[in-house]
Amino acid sequence: MLGLIKALVSIQILILALMLGIMVDMLGSMIAAGLPVFLMLSLIPKVEDIANKMLDALPAILLLPVMSAIIMVVGAGSIVEAGDNSVSDEGMMGHVYTWITAVGVVFFAITLPTIMIPLLGSVSQMATQVVSSAVSTGTMVGGQAVAGAASGGMNAFRSGSTGGLRGLASALPAIARGGALGMAHGTGSANAPGLDGASLPNAGAIAKAAGGEVHASGLPPMSAQKAAAAQAFSNAATSGQTEATAGDLSKHVKGVSGWNSALTTEQNQSRIGAQLANQDYDTLSTDGQAAYAKWHGPVHMAVKQQGWGFSNADGQNLVTDLNQNYKGFDNVNDNMMMDRIMGDVATANGVEKSEAIRFAKYGWPSEKAHHGP
């Protein structure tokens, strides 16, 4: 695991170093080529601020090679000293310390352009997001492909009656298919921060086209996932609708009666739900809001609290919370969970689900007032 972490960090730092170095070189060339224009624009009021930003970056760009050389010389000495000190350390911690020192030197050399050249600050953040997303997505897709190929191969060998090269040859299609499906599911469950958190192409459609309900990611078939999703969301919504919660509501929320033992569970839930429908959540006490939230469940409360403006990031956070705190969601694809949640968002806001999904990704219309579901 430590080796995988070191490899991922090294890959990201290497790519960032190349990207930022090339961007600095390009920026310096552009400023040098447009220097007469920027000098002229610096004489025009209101426009001079923009031109001055470009001109202020030029001295820093010219000094970068000198500063980078100093960092590398001093950093090399630090790495050698760390290596000498780590020889006497026991176990692998000495090697880890030396590696961290080396990474720190390279990382500082990478961040130097963004420190000296303010224009590169936001650009470097975007580049970091894109690189991190690409590395994590590649790791996920690669891991799913390997797992799928291994699963397909094991199933083929177990069901096959021949061994040797003939058995291996007959298993190759299953191995390839499992790897392809694993890659499809890894791609479908990956999110790209640079694309507003939008998930990549739907893996379910790819898997279906590849040949039915085979899920190399280890999840059940799609039909079983849909049934599990319906049951899991139902459980999450009603798990707090108990006699104890009803007692808390009757204590802290005016107009809500407690549990009636003469009625069935469904009748009590319906009766108390109707009483809560007339309550204004924002005016309740802290204890009342806690009981209200427990009764309605996490999905309803997340949609209500975010209201008009429920974002894609809010949905991803809710999916994470459901996976961690409620049983049943570990057998449901995250994209399917998001689709189900956006259905609730659409109902709460009185729009079509397709509109709710689009608004969640790109922003809700600001002109519409909304007071929550």
How would the blueprint of this fold be written?
Layout: H1 2-33, H2 35-41, H3 48-87, H4 93-116, H5 120-159, H6 164-189, H7 203-211, H8 222-238, H9 243-252, H10 265-276, H11 286-296, H12 298-306, H13 312-325, H14 334-349, H15 353-362
Helix pairs in contact: 1-3, 1-4, 1-5, 2-3, 3-4, 5-6, 6-7, 9-11, 12-14, 14-15
Q: Would you count the extended β strands for me?
A: 0
**Largest sheet entry:** none
What is the H/E order? Answer: HHHHHHHHHHHHHHH
How far apart the termini lie comes to 45 Å
The stretches of 5 or more residues where confidence is low (pLDDT under 50) are: 192-217, 367-373
Cα-atom radius of gyration:
29 Å
Proportion of β residues?
Answer: under 5%
Please count the helical segments.
Answer: 15
Identify the overall geometry.
extended
